[in-house]
Amino acid sequence: MNENAVKVLPYKITLKRDGLPLSDKKSSPGVVNQRSCPYYGARWILAPIKNTLHIIHSPIGCAFYGQNVRKKRYTIISTDIQEADVVYGGEKKLYNTIIESHKELGGEAIFVYITCVPALIGDNIERISRDAEDILRIPVIPVFCPGFCGYHQSKGHEIAMKALFRLIKEGEFKKEFKDKLVVNIIGEYNVCNETKVIKDLLNKLGIEVIATFTGDCSVEDVKNSKNAKLNLVHCRRTGKYIANYMEDRYDIPQLKVSFIGLRNTKKSLMDIAKFFGIEDRARDVIKEEFEKIKDELEFYIKKLKGKKVGMFMGASKIGILTSAFKDLGMEVVSVGSQFGSFEDYLDAYINVDDNTILVDDASKIDLELIFKHKKPDIFVGGTKEKYMALKFGIPFLSFPQDFYPFTGFIGFLNFAREVYKAIYHPIWRMIEFKY
Ligand code: SF4
C-alpha cells in the first residue's frame, strides 16, 4: 500500500482542510503504481518534434516501450543492446546506428537517448554524439535519461527540455519578428489538435506563435523561439525549464496560461491581451467565441450540475481540470496524480471542497478505495485507470483526450459534451453494479 496515499483514504482519512498530500516522493517498494521511468518521460517531451531522428541506445524492450507517446506511434531506432555489447561495450554499435539511420531516414537533428544498460556499462554517449555530428553536420544531442536517474517520468521531462537549450542557443535573432506580436507556447503537446485551437484564438488577437514546445514545432521553430516577446506556459511542470531559461538568458517574460476550461481560457486571453495592450480586441474575441458555444453548453451544464467527478492523471493538469469541472457545476470528489508537485496540488486545492480527497502516486488498491467510498459519477484518467473504473461501473473520460481538442471555447464545449456522453451513456441503465 502506498504510504502517501494511505493518509487520505477513508480508513485513515485526511480531509482537504488537514493539508495537501505528500507528493514528489519515491514510491513505496513493492507497490505497483502508475508511474513510468525518466526515459519514457523524455520520450513524451521530444517525440513530437518534427523532422528529427530518435535513436534509443537500449535493449529492445526500452525501445518498444518508447514508441507510443500520447497515443501516437513514432518511428524510433534502437541499438538493440545484447549480451556481447554489455561485455565489450556498445559505443561502436551506437555510432554505426546513428550514421546508418540518418543515411536511411534523414532528419534535421538527432536525439540519442541513453537508457539503464548503456549508462551502467559506461558507454560514452557524449563523445559518440560529437563524433557522429562531425560527420553528419547536424545537431546530435545526447539525452541522459536512464531509468534510475529519477523516480518518475518528471525527471525525464526536465532532462529532455534541457536538451533543447542547445538548439535555442544556436538560433538567431531575426528582423522578420521584430515588429510582430509573437509568442511561444511552452508545455503544450497537441494530443488532439489543441494547438490549432489555441493558435486560432491568438491569431484573432493578432498574435503569432513561433514554436509550440513541443507539440507543434520543428528544429527551425525551436531555434527561432528566442525571438518571442512573451512565453505562454501551458504546462508549468514541463514548461518551466524552457521558460526560465529564456527569461534568464534572453529576458523573455513568461505568463502562466491555461486554455482548458471556460474561466481559464477567458482569463488567459485577457492576461495575454493586457501584456500587449490589446484588451478591447480580446473582449470582442471572447464575446464572439462564447456566443458560438453558449446554447449547447447551457444544455450540458443543466445535465451535469452537481455530478461527482474523480480524477487521476499527469501532474499539472489536475488544477486546470478541477477548474474546468467547476465551470460545469460539477463536484470534484477526488484528485490524484502520478507525480504531482506541491504547486500542482495547490492549484487543485483552491478549486475543491473540504472533503475532497487529494492523493499522490495512488496504487490500484488506493483507487479502488476511492471508487468505493467517494462513488464518483465519472472518473477521469489514462488507460491504466480506464478499465478499473469501468469494472466498477463508473463512466470514464480519458485524459489526455481521445478524439477532440479540449482547449479554447470550442474545446470546452467538446469537453462538456464528452463528459455528458460518458455519464448518460445508455449502457449504465442496463447494468447494475454493487460494490
Ligand atoms: S527503467 Fe531503464 S530498462 Fe526500464 S524502460 Fe526505463 S530505461 Fe529501459
TrEMBL record:
Domain Nitrogenase/oxidoreductase component, chain residue ranges per copy: 37-423
Lineage top rank: taxon: Archaea
Gene3D superfamilies: Nitrogenase MoFe cofactor biosynthesis protein NifE, C-terminal (3.40.50.12380), Nitrogenase molybdenum iron protein domain (3.40.50.1980)
Molecular function GO terms recorded: oxidoreductase activity
Name of the molecule in the record: Oxidoreductase/nitrogenase component 1
Species of origin: Methanocaldococcus vulcanius (strain ATCC 700851 / DSM 12094 / M7) (Methanococcus vulcanius)
Lineage: Archaea, Methanobacteriati, Methanobacteriota, Methanomada group, Methanococci
